[in-house]
Amino acid sequence: MNNNKRIAIVTGANKGIGFEICRQLGHKDITVVLTARNKTKGELAVQSLQNEGINVSFFPLDVTDFKAIQSLIDYVKNDWGHIDILVNNAGIHLNPEESALDVKIDTIRQSMEVDVYGHIYLCQKVIPLMKENNYGRIVNMSSKAGQLSSMGAKKLGYKMSKAALNVLTAVLADEVKEHNILINAMTPGWVRTEMGGDQAPRSVVQGADTAIWLATLPDNGPSGGFFFERDLIPW
Ligand code: NAP
Q1: Residue 162: which H helix or E strand, with range?
Q2: Which residues line ligand 1 (CB under 6 A)?
Q3: Does residue 50 lie within any of the structural domains?
């Protein structure tokens, strides 16, 4: 039991930007619950962070599994009694080259299931606990693809899901504004990960930076915004 240190949950954290967010939060002396849908990959990721001296534990979580979300909340509540930070990072990017004229409705549904619905449910479960402590920071890993002000062709499912995550950010942030719970969306830019590919110009360290900043905002920090490189950007 450790009630003093801040506790952070990160989804989709066995690799890529989520893994780097766990590393950087851990190096800030925050206790990290690294979640991943694949147990073996998640445990390997935890092992490698523990080798760096980070206080991190693993919890298996497919964000589309609401029972598993409840189990995660119970686990964190029982072991630490509080949840301070939630990084909704898990995401999928299906059939990016497909035209909106051809995309299957199931593809869009799948994008929404992973990129949005699980994260809504996580917020619904985490926020009551955050309210108890009058403290919370939630980071929604969105994308420039979800930016309505620069919307173009293709990637319909991905764009809809990230735009929806932005809506969730603005609505929830307003609902909890009296409780010192700061909720923001961000884009990491185009980052070299399995999703971003080898040609992406940005490293995971660069991609994670804004998430770490938003996850550790002071009490008077911004809420209900969309950020890139720590700057506010249009929705
Ligand atoms: P990544 O390396 O492909 O990692 C995605 C993570 O999400 C993986 O851990 C993956 O698990 C997990 N995931 C997928 N479906 C899941 C589910 N149902 N439940 C739980 N976890 C699930 O991609 P990334 O680049 O780090 O992306 C992280 C976030 O940044 C995503 O939300 C993405 O949309 C966003 N983003 C990335 C870029 C970029 O250029 N890379 C740009 C803008 C936004 P598995 O390993 O099991 O598949």
Answers
A1: helix 156-175
A2: 11-12, 14-18, 36-38, 41, 61-64, 89-93, 114, 141, 143, 187-188, 190-191, 193-196, 200
A3: yes
The string of pLDDT tens digits covering residues 116-135 is 999 999 999 999 999 999 99
Q: How many domains does the chain have?
A: 1
Q: How far is the CA of 207 from the centre of ligand 1 (A)?
A: 12
Question: Please, are residues 115 and 162 in contact by the beta-carbon 8 Å criterion?
Answer: yes
Q: What is the pTM of this model?
A: 0.98
Task: Place 1 in a pLDDT band, splitting at 50, 70 and 90.
Answer: very low
**81 located within any domain:** yes
pLDDT, the chain, mean: 97
CA–CA distance, 183 with 226 (Å, rounded to integer): 10
> Could you tell me the CATH number of the domain that includes residue 134?
3.40.50.720
